Automatic annotation (TrEMBL):
This is Transcriptional attenuator, LytR family. PANTHER family: POLYISOPRENYL-TEICHOIC ACID--PEPTIDOGLYCAN TEICHOIC ACID TRANSFERASE TAGU. Residues 245-391 form the Cell envelope-related transcriptional attenuator domain. Belongs to the LytR/CpsA/Psr (LCP) family. The chain crosses the membrane at residues 12-33, 39-60, 72-93. Keywords: Membrane, Transmembrane, Transmembrane helix. InterPro entries: LytR/CpsA/Psr_CW_biosynth (IPR050922), LytR_CpsA_psr (IPR004474).
Length: 488
């Protein structure tokens, strides 16, 4: 009889020990990743202690209590269920933390090639000890890393140039033997050097990452201070780091004090001065070919505002995310067959769109009279629907790991994981009801020559409306200053 009691006692002790370990695991994980505000951390600790005490009391009831065996069995089952739940919760928290780390403070990637026009340097090895030209345009950190790489590889001299034309003139005169340039400048070289595509030889190519310089926003507490983030949706087919145009250009201003979010879309065809082109103008979407830094700097100069962060998003991954969350509810003001996907028809009215439909809807412009502006409004509608679905549907918990994995491989940002956790803690602590507003900068479409990348090709551009820029700048500035705003 004593052996039987001892066996039951031992079994109960082992199960309680497992629950204790699971409780320690969830507490350690929660403290390590710092998702919860301190008050909720304290509540979690108290709850775990109370649950441990409750289960202990059920498994080891007073001697005189009836149905002791049934209570012990109930306590054991309850303890096992709690332990399983705590372990799964710890796993989910780690998945979220890994995803945030994958997105946060991602080092930008640059794709470079070495070109020559003299056939005697037809391999990279023959450039040893020669002079190679580099451009100082764009991100200084990228230029510094590029110079370091080419010097280490070739033990060569380097010459810096402020313009593409000056660099190519030196190459033509033989003052430098090669140029080491970002892939984005290939078209610019072809426009500034007659016969470039025929006479220039690529003898080497390389991709590298580089550390961005810290800015005043690096240590900003975004749970207390308003901030603006640039959403750059790129039409990449392989990776979010792929060199490509930015089809979505949206400024999202978040004011945690007034609980307002303003989405300001800038049409992709906006005719603006590129920050790396000495005043030359082109479509805004072309700025992204030179990197997100150039796109961000171009918008800062155009709108005369501060942009704290950027988030580069693989727009085609939208299909996977929308499908994972079970589709999004969107309103279309007309029935049309999308020009980017002729195999589907989007009908007028409210409807639940899957990923394929949502992507086509957000890329459509030819259906609308004011195509580029209407497309920007559609993109805002899709983003808003995704945010609302992900923040309100409890059914998404079972898809949580897949959603977080999809987000981590689709977003590249200079916001730190600590800053993203600040927003999460704000959401958990106060669960504010966000007032989400959207607006689009205006302009007038015009077909003309003269764009920086394709100066001899007649293309449609949108000439910015300066009054619209002034109006939207004021919206953003008022939000940053803590004022509650409304948009027209």
């Amino acid at each position: 009889m004593k052996k039987k009691k001892h066996a039951k006692f031992k079994k109960g002790s082992l199960i309680l020990a497992a629950q204790f370990i699971a409780s320690l695991l969830i507490m350690f994980t929660s403290l390590k990743i710092a998702f919860l505000p301190w008050f909720y951390q304290l509540l979690l600790a108290v709850l775990l202690i109370l649950l441990s005490g409750l289960v202990h009391k059920i498994i080891y009831p007073k001697k005189k209590e009836k149905r002791k065996a049934f209570r012990q069995l109930t306590g054991i089952i309850l303890s096992l269920v709690l332990s399983f739940f705590l372990v799964i919760s710890s796993s989910y928290l780690n998945v979220a933390n890994t995803a945030l780390s994958g997105m946060a403070k991602s080092d930008p990637t640059a794709n470079y090639r070495t070109y020559v026009i003299d056939g005697s340097y037809n391999s990279i090895g023959k450039l040893q000890g020669q002079t190679v030209g580099l451009l100082t345009l764009g991100d200084e950190a990228e230029h510094t890393k590029a110079k370091q790489i080419i010097k280490n590889k070739l033990h060569c001299e380097t010459e810096d140039y402020d313009t593409v034309l000056d660099m190519l003139s030196s190459l033509r005169r033989g003052e430098i033997q090669a140029v080491f340039i970002n892939d984005a400048y290939k078209t610019v070289c072809a426009n500034n050097y007659t016969g470039w595509n025929r006479n220039a030889y690529c003898v080497d190519k390389i991709s590298f990452t580089y550390d961005e310089e810290d800015t005043p926003s690096t240590n900003k507490n975004i749970s207390k201070n308003a901030f603006t983030v640039l959403i750059s949706g790129v039409d990449s087919r392989k990776s979010v780091t792929e060199t490509c145009r930015s089809d979505v250009n949206m400024l999202v201003t978040i004011q945690p004090e007034t609980h307002q979010i303003l989405m300001t879309s800038i049409p992709r065809d906006y005719y603006v001065s590129l920050s790396n082109a000495q005043g030359h103008k082109d479509k805004l979407c072309h700025a992204a070919l030179f990197g997100t830094y150039t796109l961000q700097k171009t918008l800062i100069n155009t709108l005369d505002i501060n942009i704290d962060f950027y988030a580069r998003v693989s727009f085609t991954s939208l299909t996977r995310i929308v499908d994972l969350i079970g589709g999004v509810k969107i309103y279309s003001d007309k029935t049309f067959v999308p020009w980017t996907d002729r195999g589907i028809t989007i009908k007028k009215g409210w409807q639940t769109m899957n990923g394929r439909y949502a992507l086509a809807f957000s890329r459509e412009r030819k259906t609308y009279t004011n195509g580029d502006s209407h497309r920007a409004a559609n993109q805002q509608a899709v983003l808003k629907a995704i945010i609302e679905k992900m923040s309100s549907s409890p059914l998404l918990i079972k898809k949580y790991p897949e959603i977080m994995k999809a987000l981590s491989t689709s977003i590249q940002t200079n916001m730190s994981s600590d800053q993203m956790k600040q927003l999460l803690r704000l959401e958990i602590a106060s669960h504010p009801s966000w007032d989400i507003m959207s607006t689009v900068l205006e302009g007038n479409s015009k077909r003309m020559l003269g764009g920086y990348l394709m100066p001899h090709t007649s293309l449609y551009y949108m000439i910015p409306d300066e009054n619209s820029i002034d109006e939207h700048r004021q919206y953003i500035q008022n939000m940053i200053n803590g004022q509650k705003i409304s948009v027209n």
